[in-house]
Amino acid sequence: MNEDYMLEALALAREAAEAGEVPVGCVIVDADGRVIGRGRNRREENGDATAHAEVEAIREACAALGDWRLAGCTLYVTLEPCPMCAGAILNARIPRVVFGARDPSVGCCGSVIDLFYEKLGHRPAVTPDVLAVESANLLQSFFKEKR
User: Does the active-site annotation cover 145?
Assistant: First the structure.
């Protein structure tokens, strides 16, 4: 099941790459298994430093549920969340995070720091490395072409 949702996130990451954005994609699934939020990086497109895949998906999921609390939901993202996105996940009270590739430069689910381990009032369960090779390969290909 994790892989099916991660494949959807990877499709969004490919869309981001095609648009010249860092290829990160995200989907949020409710307790019934319905995708209620989708996002991909749009920083260049929107000229907005906060236009990360997770933030876009969280906004869409909140609108779908009519609530800022995303209890019972799972967030699937192709790259380990950064500090900003980890903070958004905490604030949305998302109970579970599944990610693909680790981010050794700013990853906040254990690669650099584990913000979900800190005493911040909410502690999501984390499942790392789901389709990690596919996620990492997409990122590596993107940056290889940029150089």
Answer: no
